[in-house]
Amino acid sequence: MSEIPLTHILFVSTALFFIGMYGLFTRRNMITMLMAVELMLNSVNINFVAFNKYLFPENLDGVFFTIFIITIAAAEAAVAIAIIINLYRSHHSIDVEDATEMKW
């Protein structure tokens, strides 16, 4: 079976990262922005696993970093969803433009 070249994997990862960046900067819905951040983190995970496989196949450093990032992303998503729910309860909207009117 033929192996996929590293450049193809990096191209997919770069495309995912920039799609996530586009979604983060152009959307006003907080849930969509959270999904864009998660997409960017997943593209970084693809990079870690790909570089680990092609550069240091005997080590598992890239896999360990990926597991750590997945753990941090889960905690970040839980906190972000709690903030979004709190914002919706107070303003009845999850639009970022409405969040600028919040009084801290």
UniProtKB/TrEMBL annotation:
InterPro entries: NADH_UbQ_OxRdtase_chain4L/K (IPR001133), NUOK/Mnh_C1-like (IPR039428). It is found in: Cell membrane; Membrane. It is a multi-pass membrane protein. The chain crosses the membrane at residues 6-25, 63-88. GO terms for biological process: ATP synthesis coupled electron transport. It holds the Pfam family Oxidored_q2. Keywords: Cell membrane, Membrane, NAD, Oxidoreductase, Quinone, Translocase, Transmembrane, Transmembrane helix, Transport. Its EC number is 7.1.1.-. GO terms for molecular function: NADH dehydrogenase (quinone) (non-electrogenic) activity; quinone binding. One of its GO terms (cellular component) is plasma membrane. It catalyses: a quinone + NADH + 5 H(+)(in) = a quinol + NAD(+) + 4 H(+)(out). The keyword Transmembrane applies. Its main location: membrane. Belongs to the complex I subunit 4L family. NCBIfam families: PRK05715.1-2, PRK05715.1-3, PRK05715.1-5. NDH-1 shuttles electrons from NADH, via FMN and iron-sulfur (Fe-S) centers, to quinones in the respiratory chain. The immediate electron acceptor for the enzyme in this species is believed to be ubiquinone. Couples the redox reaction to proton translocation (for every two electrons transferred, four hydrogen ions are translocated across the cytoplasmic membrane), and thus conserves the redox energy in a proton gradient. NDH-1 is composed of 14 different subunits. Subunits NuoA, H, J, K, L, M, N constitute the membrane sector of the complex. This is NADH-quinone oxidoreductase subunit K. It comes from Limnovirga soli. The gene is nuoK.
